[in-house]
Design brief:
Layout (H helix, E strand, L loop, with lengths): L8 H21 L22 H13 L4 H8 L10 H8 L6 H11 L17
Length: 128
């Protein structure tokens, strides 16, 4: 495993500021009862696909936490043939129907709007 080296002490300060802002947003400012139906799991009967406004709001929340659009694209594993790493992210904002559900869910996890859990059935599931 390759270790990442810190270039300067200011890198730590920047990361600490991102973490503090993110934690404050997740734990003190978000009311889960106000979340749109697109924040529900895909198998929930009331789930709806995200709108452009909802996708943009999540991206803006990540930007508020200190991430750039290039950082967000990197977190989501979005790759393009050219140098513009944010092209696919912008396309998702303009046309959210092109965004895979897993990408949407990961964005929600990053902003702390949802917690991903695995539901195991009470009966009929055996781990070997």
């Amino acid at each position: 495993m390759k270790e990442e080296k810190i270039v300067s002490i200011s890198d730590l300060a920047t990361d600490e500021a991102k973490v503090r802002r993110h934690l404050g947003l997740v734990h003190f400012m978000r009311d889960p009862s106000q979340n749109p139906t697109s924040y529900l799991p895909i198998d929930h009967p009331k789930y709806t696909s995200p709108t452009s406004i909802e996708v943009d709001e999540v991206v803006q929340t990540l930007i508020y936490c200190g991430y750039s659009k290039a950082d967000i694209a990197r977190l989501l594993g979005l790759k393009t043939a050219g140098k513009d790493r944010t092209r696919i992210l912008r396309r998702y904002i303009d046309d959210p129907d092109t965004m895979p559900y897993g990408t949407w869910r990961l964005m929600l996890i990053y902003i702390g709007a949802v917690i991903q859990t695995n539901i195991v059935p009470d009966q009929g599931w055996i781990r070997e």
